[in-house]
Structures are given as structure tokens and as C-alpha cells.
Design a protein that fits this description.
alpha/beta, Rossmann fold, 8-stranded mixed beta sheet, about 30% strand, 2 domains, Dihydrodipicolinate Reductase, domain 2, 7-stranded mixed beta sheet, about 350 residues
Length: about 350
């Protein structure tokens, strides 16, 4: 079987999808792309360097100038454009392609209601929403699955607090490009740490359901030339668990990178590290336990997600975040943005 896959955008994330798809499926794959910036730049798999080479040649990608030039039938469309373009790109892909599945690189950008992405009063989105997914790869992490299992063993009323932190230096994130030209630190392009690191919002909702923001804080501590905050903290409460509060920290200034979390419950705590894929549990009644899932890489999570999207017929069996979950994450981001405007 030969798969037809379209990648909208060929920057760092678009090239990552192209590399993994070509590595996995070889010649059983036809790759297509539209790229807005005609950069002849091949980005390294570590996202830390680039070389002068054309990714369309390296990965065997057919470049088209518009959606009408794509095959009539696509197995998967991947929206890998900058955050502020996701909404319109999704509308266009829904309207002008016959793609069996659509995957959007996080987040949705201002789309906290399906009403906002209807195009010319078309109901095409309503008919496609079961086929649209968000690329929150952590859902395929063995660490997250273990966290869910261990948390389920605790009485919900005995869980007190949840903390997470996602800290990465913006200048070092993609050193092959000038961060000042990136959407990530541009408030007019829906950039900020909260939006760029929205994986962690999806994780807390995976674990505890929808969350309500009760406090928002931000600051600009560094000399980064950006129009967004470089640090954001959101305190929220679970809509389903009366005692649970969560504190989520996001920043563009940390070095070295840190991404982890901690859960406090009656008689113990859990602490985990997403970068090292480690989980430690101290429980007064069950003792001390440690788990290490470092043998599974982030690329493995991407590959499992892509395999499911290409080969699973039933949407209910796919672990990737569906459009309803993605809208909740985006609503969370928009609520934080509104607090910023109200207190700005």
C-alpha cells in the first residue's frame, strides 16, 4: 500500500514529520508539501543545526503551489505551519482536500469554538471533526500512561496539588534561526511560552479533566527581544475534583532545559522528569518506587502517532487528542490571554 501524505509547511516540525515518515515507510509513501518560505535549509534531527540542502530533495517530497494541485485522495494532511496560521490552514484543508485524517501541530490558535472555523457558512468542519487530531505527542509516552495508572490508585479526594514546569531557553531552542524573527516570541502571531509549550496543558487535562484558571501571572525578566512575556504561571482548579489545584509554569529563559512535574497526595508524592522519562513515587503505605522509560524517544512517540493515524480506521481507537480536547486546551490559553489583557 502506498500512502499519500501532505505536509503544510516545511520548517523544523514539518521536516521532522517528513524524515520520520520517509524513514518508516520508505518508497511506500508519496509526500507533498506547500512551503511559504522557500528556504534551502535542511534542519538536523536534534533541531540544533542546519545545513545548505533542499529538504524536498533529501526526503523525496513533491512541492505544489496550491491545494488544488494535490491528489484527489490523501491519507493524512499535517498542518505544520506557525501557530497563527493553523486556523486558516485547517479551514483550507477541510474545504479543498479530501484528506482521510488531519493532524494539526499544536495549538489551535484562537479557536475555542468550532463556530470560529466555519468558512463561508459551510458545515464541512462539522462533518470532518472526527477526523481532526492535535499533535500532543506526550499522549504516546509510556511515562504518561504510567502516571495515569498510578494516579488512578489514589482516592481522588486525597490528591491535593499538581505542579508542572516547562523551561527552555528561546535563543537556544532553534539556534539555526534568529529567534527575533520567529512566531514564538511574537504576540501578534499568538506566540508566548504558554502557547508554544501547550503540551503540558493537555497533560494536566488528560490526567484530571478540564481545568479552570483562578490566577494568572507573567513577567519579562530577560533581555530577550520579544513582545511576549518570557515567564508565565497559571494556577488552576479541577472542574471535577474539588480539592485539586494545579500550578503550571512556562518560560523562555531556563538553561539547561527542564520539563517535569510533581503531584502531592495524602501520605506521599510523585515526581517526574519528561526529558529523562523518569518517575519517582514516595508513598507512606506502598513504599518507594522508581520507573525509567528512557528507552523510548520522542521520535518513537511521533512514529506511533503517525502509524495510528495512517492505519487505524476507528477514530475512537486513536490516542491522539481529538478536536474537542484541542478546543479545551485552546480555551485555556485564550482565558489566560484575556487575563493578561484585563490586567495589562
Amino acid at each position: 500500500m502506498t500512502y499519500n501524505v501532505f505536509i503544510y509547511g516545511l520548517g523544523s516540525i514539518g521536516q521532522r514529520y517528513a524524515r520520520l515518515l520517509r524513514d518508516t515507510y520508505g518508497d511506500d509513501l508519496r509526500l507533498y508539501t506547500i512551503r511559504r518560505r522557500k528556504r534551502i535549509e535542511l534542519i538536523d534531527s536534534t533541531l540544533q543545526s542546519s545545513s545548505l540542502a533542499d529538504p524536498t530533495i533529501i526526503y523525496g517530497i513533491i512541492e505544489v503551489s496550491n491545494l488544488n494541485e494535490l491528489p484527489k485522495s490523501l491519507d493524512l494532511s499535517i498542518i505544520a505551519s506557525p501557530i497563527h496560521l493553523h486556523k486558516q490552514d485547517l479551514i483550507d484543508v477541510c474545504n479543498f482536500t479530501n484528506s482521510r485524517k488531519i493532524l494539526i501541530e499544536k495549538p489551535l490558535s484562537g479557536m475555542n469554538s468550532s463556530e470560529q472555523i466555519h468558512h463561508n457558512n459551510s458545515d464541512i468542519f462539522e462533518s470532518r471533526q472526527n477526523d481532526i487530531f492535535m499533535s500532543f505527542q506526550s499522549r504516546y509516552s509510556k511515562l504518561l500512561q504510567k502516571l495515569k495508572f498510578e494516579i488512578a490508585l489514589i482516592n481522588p479526594e486525597d490528591i491535593y496539588s499538581y505542579k508542572s514546569w516547562f523551561s527552555e531557553n528561546l535563543e537556544s531552542m532553534h539556534p539555526y534561526e534568529d529567534y527575533r524573527t520567529s512566531h514564538m516570541g511574537n504576540v501578534d502571531q499568538q506566540g508566548d511560552p504558554l502557547s508554544c509549550f501547550s503540551h503540558d496543558i493537555d497533560i494536566v487535562m488528560c490526567l484530571f479533566g478540564e481545568m479552570k484558571i483562578v490566577e494568572y501571572r507573567e513577567s519579562k525578566k530577560s533581555d530577550l527581544q520579544i513582545s511576549t512575556p518570557d515567564f508565565q504561571r497559571v494556577t488552576c482548579e479541577s472542574k471535577e475534583r474539588s480539592k485539586l489545584t494545579a500550578q503550571l509554569d512556562f518560560d523562555f529563559i531556563g538553561w539547561p532545559s527542564q520539563r517535569g512535574g510533581e503531584l502531592m497526595f495524602k501520605g506521599g508524592r510523585m515526581k517526574w522528569d519528561w526529558l529523562k522519562q523518569k518517575l519517582d513515587i514516595i508513598d507512606k503505605s506502598r513504599g518507594v518506587k522508581s520507573f525509567n522509560f528512557a528507552e523510548t524517544s520522542r521520535d518513537d512517540q511521533f512514529k506511533e502517532m503517525l502509524h495510528q493515524l495512517l492505519n487505524t480506521l476507528s477514530s475512537e481507537e486513536i490516542k491522539a487528542a481529538g478536536i474537542a480536547d484541542a478546543i479545551k486546551v485552546d480555551g485555556f490559553i485564550q482565558a489566560a490571554s484575556n487575563m493578561r489583557k484585563n490586567h495589562g
